[in-house]
Amino acid sequence: MAGANSKAGVDRYKYGILLILFIALTAYVEAQLLPGSLSSTVVGILAFACAAETAAMFKAAGVEPLSKISLGLAAAVVCAVALPRLGQSMTTRVSFVIFRAFGTAELGLLAFAFFAAACVLRQKTGGAAQTLGAGAVVILVATGLLYMIDIRYFNGSATLDGLELLIFLVAVSKVGDIAAFIVGSAVGKHKLIPAVSPGKTWEGALASLVAACGVAALFGIFHFAGPLTAETAAAGGIVINIAAQFGDLAESLLKRSAGVKDSGNWLPQFGGAFDLVDSLFLAAPIFHGFLRIVSL
Questions:
Q1: Whole-angstrom Cα distance, residue 96 to residue 84?
Q2: Is residue 197 classed as helix, strand or coil in its secondary structure?
Q3: Domain locations along the chain
Q4: Which H or E element spans position 198?
Q5: Which residues, including other chains, have CB under 8 Å from residue 223's CB and lie 6 or more apart?
Q6: DSSP 200
Q7: What's the rounded Cα separation, in Å, for the pair 209 and 177?
Q8: How far apart are the first and last CA of the chain?
Q9: pLDDT given at position 1
């Protein structure tokens, strides 16, 4: 069993490396041909897929997230954020007006307000708190990942700085994941939160933080972190890593509650979309906030 778990872990972190390479390739293609459009499409699809997997895990755990309503609202947020980047059709113009009026965070809050209203109108009294919480998490997962689009357009347009910052976010997050797995497997003895994720250790968490900070600093030193200096990039790496580890733990808690090993099954030996980007749904919005603070 231990050997099987170790092999599964290695397979998962191979996908982490492949994700970094995929983002880099996507970034290169869109920088040359489709500035902003390709990354917005990929992130939008991932955001909705992760929201759908989250709703399914809640249902497996016996909590009804009113999937049709919560996923419909999540899809609306995805369209309002992603579509403005894809062209000048009437649909994208309408979504751009909506996006300019509210922004990603406001759209997420508005979606939750509609969800709460739907619960009231359906007279959902039994388990209302659980239903509201589940719907909020479904919308939060989609909204959090959409901040990757905001980072891509950090200066208001699809500039090279935004492209570098998006690659920076994904690379720092995934390098931390890989370091945690390698060190935790090799020397990890002290469990982090065994009730949530038995495989995670304090040694792995510390290695993850150190690796993320080091790689982030290297991005800054070699001027591949947008406008960030090496010192600011290192600080950003710490912020990203802490948020990423909490995001990973949050998904582990949800999977344990649902009694499932993976969030989905569309990637062989890996799992679902949320397994691939669980560390980003909190890291992206928090890193976006960090960028706004250091840019003041």
A1: 5
A2: strand
A3: 1-33+158-296, 34-153
A4: strand 197-201
A5: none
A6: E
A7: 9
A8: 52
A9: 42
**Using CA atoms in the order 265, 266, 270, 272, what is the torsion angle rounded to 10 degrees?**
-70
For residue 223, the 8-state DSSP code is T
Tokens describing residue 128: 């209302």
Do residues 172 and 240 touch, judged by C-beta distance below 8 A? yes
Helix or strand (DSSP H, E) at 293: helix 280-294
Residue pair 98/80 in contact (Cβ under 8 Å)? The answer is yes
This prediction's pTM: 0.86
The owner of tokens 């499409």 is 41
Residues belonging to the chain: 296
pLDDT in tens, 214-236: 999 999 999 888 889 999 999 99
HEC string for 72-97: HHHHHHHHHHHHHHCCCCHHHHHHHH
Write out pLDDT tens, residues 245-259: 999 999 988 888 888
CA distances from 2 to 6, 11, 230, 255, 263 (A): 6, 14, 40, 20, 21
Half-sphere exposure of 128 (CA within 13 A, CB side): 12
